[in-house]
Design brief:
CATH architecture of the largest domain: 3-Layer(aba) Sandwich
Radius of gyration: 23 Å
Distance between the termini: 49 Å
Shape: elongated
Structural class: alpha/beta
Strand content: 15-25%
Largest sheet: 6 strands, mixed
Length: 314
């Protein structure tokens, strides 16, 4: 029996996101993500303007009238949604938690997919694979996916995207559309406000190289789109005096003086470098990405992504 609170929350997301799919994303998903080919539909009489290359000469000869072969897009796709459920995603300084944001984005993608008769699957991960839901169709299946993303309690705390991508390649037998939703925080690098940022950059370089290989392999097999979850407090420290910061994934804490202007400046520089390296990583392996922040409506970023992909395919 589903708890009343859970049912209401799933229902709210269903109403909100399905409305967005109808009003904002109608046609966008279909035009951007095409099927794997075409399949024969029917033979009909030739009409002015038809491509002469599609004429079926056997039927034309038999009937004495020109006929053409009509083909339709082989529409069915498999959409895999990979969601980072590590503890760093249970954070926000404004609006909603990154985990809540992930659930709503997953819902929009899932509803868009089933509206186009595509299959939807889910992989939730931390430093291990927490749950795998095989791809299926239908509203009931999508509601199950949303319910899991919203209320699943992970066993792991930290993040291992490489392991999630390797698991994806094991359980998928055909080319899929893959949405990888994560804050892309390498474990152990969340707390780095030190004035000397050299160790921080070295840690990022090491994590990037580990992830780069797995992401490149996955992107060759699938169409991978990274969706990054961000929060403004991860970029700027406020002047609040002596404060304690805790890394949600490792549990480590650090006591800092946030009134130190040099430290706040270094904190901002470190995180600016983190975002730049993340962008370089995606570009180096040809992975599209969408930056989502807790303080800005996510619909704008997703609409811009669809428009960019559509222009590129022309």
């Amino acid at each position: 029996m589903i708890p009343k609170e859970l049912f209401q929350k799933v229902r709210r997301i269903e109403i909100t996101t399905s409305r967005l799919v109808s009003d904002v994303f109608a046609g966008e998903y279909h035009s951007v993500f095409k099927g794997q080919g075409v399949e024969f539909d029917e033979v009909r009489e030739y009409q002015p303007g038809d491509d002469v290359r599609t004429i079926d000469w056997n039927v034309t000869a038999r009937t004495g009238k020109p006929h053409i072969k009509k083909f339709i897009e082989e529409r069915e796709l498999t959409v895999m949604i990979l969601v980072d459920v590590s503890l760093s995603c249970r954070f926000a300084s404004v609006n909603m938690l990154k985990s809540q944001l992930a659930a709503e984005i997953a819902a929009i993608l899932a509803f868009s997919a089933i509206r186009n008769n595509d299959k939807v699957g889910l992989i939730m991960f931390t430093d291990r694979i927490e749950k795998f839901i095989p791809p299926r169709k239908g509203l009931r299946h999508v509601l199950h996916v949303i319910r899991e993303v919203l209320y699943f309690e992970p066993e792991g705390h930290s993040t291992d995207i490489m392991n999630a991508l390797e698991y994806l390649n094991k359980v998928t037998t055909r080319k899929s559309i893959v949405f990888l939703i994560s804050d892309f925080f390498p474990s152990g690098t969340i707390l780095r406000p030190e004035k000397n940022g050299q160790n921080y950059r070295e840690g990022l370089n090491s994590s990037e190289e580990i992830l780069k290989k797995s992401l490149a392999i996955a992107n060759k097999r699938h169409d991978v789109i990274a969706i990054t979850l961000n929060d403004p407090r991860e970029m700027q420290l406020s002047d609040s005096g002596i404060i304690t910061l805790e890394d949600a994934e490792t549990g480590k804490t650090i006591l800092i003086d946030s009134s130190d202007a040099a430290l706040r400046r270094q904190y901002h520089q470190n995180n600016t470098e983190r975002l730049k390296q993340r962008e370089r990583l995606f570009r180096s392996v040809g992975t599209d990405y969408i930056d989502i922040s807790t303080d800005v409506p996510y619909t704008n970023a997703i609409v811009k992504f669809f428009a960019k992909r559509r222009r590129r395919k022309r």
